[in-house]
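Input/output pair, single chain:
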Amino acid sequence: MTWIDPLDCPYYLVSRTALLMSTRFKRMLVEAGFKQVKPAYLWALLSLWRSDGLKVVDLAREAALETSTMTGLLDRMERDGLVIRTPDADDRRTLRIYLTHEGKKLQQPLIDLALLMIDELLMGIPEEEVSVVNDVLRRILQSPAE
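Output:
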């Protein structure tokens, strides 16, 4: 049997880091009074802040989620008053996702909070090392292994 040391395993390290960041961001959201916002909403919100009115399938692709997962996420975001779903003018079978007034006004405060969380977690790590990690992770995400 082959032993894998978790501290030498990229899968473990990336998974644990993502969990740490999500947990910290969730705590910061609550402390800042954004109880209706969940860390999982961030990628959908970032996409909609850049291009409001995306189709569900396009939003899922941009947020790197399966369409079925995005549907559940949108159910919660709609319940929390951040988005609305509207039939597409050209194809009523297709839904477009639009930010509500509440979803729009959260843009700068949530971006600022996310950047603060990242800065806090990366404190003391040289910028050059962070750049290398980002480059490696981008290459992994762009690899044709999917």
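DSSP finds seven helices and three strands in the chain. The chain has a mean pLDDT of 94.
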